[in-house]
Amino acid sequence: MFAVSIAQGLFLICLLAAKKNGNALAAKLIAAMVALMILTNLGYLVVRTELLQYVPWMFGVPFGFIFCFGPLFYFYARAVTQPQFKWKHIYWLHFIPYLIQLLINMPVLISCQAAWNQFISTFLAGNLPIRLTEKIILLLQDVHLFVYLFLTFRRIKAVDNASPQTRYVIPFASRIKWLGQLAVCFGLFLVTVFLLYVYILARGKYHPVTNYIYTLVTSGIIYFIAFKVVLQPDAVSPGFAQKYKAYMQFDGEEGNAYVKKLTTLMAVDKIFTNPDLKLAVLSNQIGLPPHQLSKLINEKFGKSFNDYINGYRIEEFISRVNKDTAKAYSIYGLALDVGFNSKSSFNAAFKKITGKTPSDYRPS
Asked: What is residue 241's DSSP assignment?
């Protein structure tokens, strides 16, 4: 049964990877959750099969994974409900509790084969005592998951109450419903883990049945996510493509909002320095279909997409070219740094936009 759940989880991850996701970050986060559940089930499978003779340490790999489920689900909910949500390096700090437990478990994880065999045989016999440190860690795991589930639930309620007016192809109502269903799954998971914690405390020793029940629940979550992917694949990693009229007018507040978002991406984020920036990539950032974004640029700036992007690149080149920090660059090297991907396209764009050559701004 656990082998089948592991196979199902691997298949699910492959589906998420192969699918052209409208929301790549959401797909990665839920794939990470499934991967942790696979490793959890694999750890239990090891002690019940011949794998124990080869990789007994796999049993210890999932220790502390519960510290990861809460943050992953919380950020997944944000990725599904916030159009502008992006992963930031500071978010890795949320996984510090797991890293601390990993360090605590390291002496066990690096034990020799004989030590692992003794450890697992004692565990399977139901005679492995639970130490005070482990009691505290298990309690902290439950509290940690509860806090993140509470934050996620509050996030879902806030989105539900806000009722975003922007109409997306995948509406917020279906996103909230799906997140609510997944929150129920993790809520049941938390209740199960807490009851197992109480049982272990009462008994004073670990019992293999507790791990069996734990992995039953993770298997159930894997199957539930897989069921959702099969029935509604776009609901699991929904993008923010908008519903739109055949001919959208960009006058008024809506048009100004798109212009402001576009200008911020250019002037502040300097997205134009990406040499692979295409109309489709930028349209996904703005939240407009490509042909509507092209129309917006044409109406508001009187330029084609390429001229609009190259205008920012040329402006950035001119602002840098005579600074001390740019002296180490050749003219072409600086052109690559501002987003051009060939010398010919740079020269052609520069002449078209400024009427001059790059060397006019940096004489040899």
From this structure: P
